[in-house]
Write a structure and sequence with these properties.
Number of strands: 12
CATH class: Alpha Beta
Organism: Fervidobacterium pennivorans
Largest sheet: 6 strands, parallel
Pfam families: CbiA
Keywords: Glutamine amidotransferase
CATH architecture: 3-Layer(aba) Sandwich
Protein name: Cobyric acid synthase
Shape: globular
Strand order of the largest sheet: 2-9-1-10-11-12
Radius of gyration: 18 Å
Order of helices and strands: EHEEEEHEEEHEHEHHEHEHH
Strand content: 15-25%
């Protein structure tokens, strides 16, 4: 079973929600694995005795699943460095992002390998939770991207859309994303979540439910803004009170705290139903 957490844009909280769902369903007794086919990050962690590297987000998600982090959880790592952008596949440097060879040749070969990795993960796990990247749909990239809708379609993943309501325009972002999907693609989309909300939720009235009804999907909840102490792959500086990645006991404790908070503010029973129907 595949569940994809996709975003209407970057930095909406996809990684955190994937982490929380990984933790929740692991605690429920499922054998869960995280996955993000391609992640761009200046901050990564060496694993498997230095033989490989993955982004911090997938490292933390693996901990949430009580799994030893492996490169299969993040096969493609893109690292901006010294004015160039390096591309690693399964820990090995393969090319620079700007090269035509990567964009038009290597990328397609990697996509085939990504599908193989996903299939193997699915055979060995009850649930694979896939994280998308950036905006879920960019019309100019729809046929060539290897991390969002194309991945979901290739494995028939059930999709939950995440939108940051703190910046304004979240309703339009959800609607706009759906409008860029064809009817077959829309069948994979099961619901949406708002994140980083400030204020009184009653101010939303029944607008989320109306939007959900319009597109025959589920409104899964609104998560208030909150701080956490887990290292962030998008921040170049440390957070106040940030927990070291090698302190797994404290990382797990913080993951559990975040998971409990998120589950409190979403309709987890609907997500459980989405997963059970997809199995």
């Amino acid at each position: 079973m595949y569940l994809m957490i996709a975003g209407t844009m970057s930095n909406v909280g996809k990684s955190t929600i994937v982490m929380a769902l990984c933790r929740y369903f692991t605690r429920k007794g499922l054998n869960v694995a995280p996955f993000k086919s391609q992640n761009m990050s200046r901050k990564f962690i060496n694993i498997q005795n230095g033989k490989g590297k993955i982004a911090i987000a997938q490292y933390v998600q693996a901990i949430a699943c009580e799994k030893e982090p492996t490169m299969e959880f993040n096969p493609i790592l893109i690292v901006p460095k010294e004015g160039k952008t390096q591309v690693y596949f399964m820990g090995e440097f393969i090319d620079y992002l700007t090269s035509e060879h990567y964009m038009f040749d290597s990328k397609e070969k990697l996509f085939a390998q990504i599908r193989d990795i996903l299939e193997k993960l699915s055979k060995n796990h009850d649930l694979v939770i896939i994280e998308g990247a950036g905006a879920f749909i960019e019309p100019n990239l729809k046929d060539s991207e290897i991390v969002n809708l194309r991945v979901a379609k290739s494995v028939g993943a059930q999709i939950i859309l995440v939108s940051d309501i703190s910046r304004g325009g979240a309703f339009a972002q959800v609607a706009g994303t759906i409008e860029l999907m064809d009817n077959k693609e829309r069948k994979l989309l099961k619901g949406f979540v708002f994140t980083k909300f400030h204020g009184d939720k009653s101010l939303l009235k029944d607008a989320p439910q109306i939007l959900a009804k319009r597109y025959s999907i589920e409104y899964l909840g609104t998560i208030p803004y909150f701080e956490n102490k887990i290292p962030d792959e998008d921040l170049l500086t440390k957070k106040e009170g940030e927990i070291a990645l090698d302190d797994k006991a404290q990382i797990i404790k913080e993951i559990d705290r975040i998971t409990d908070f998120i589950i409190e503010h979403i309709d987890i029973s609907k997500i459980e139903r989405i997963i059970s129907e997809g199995m």
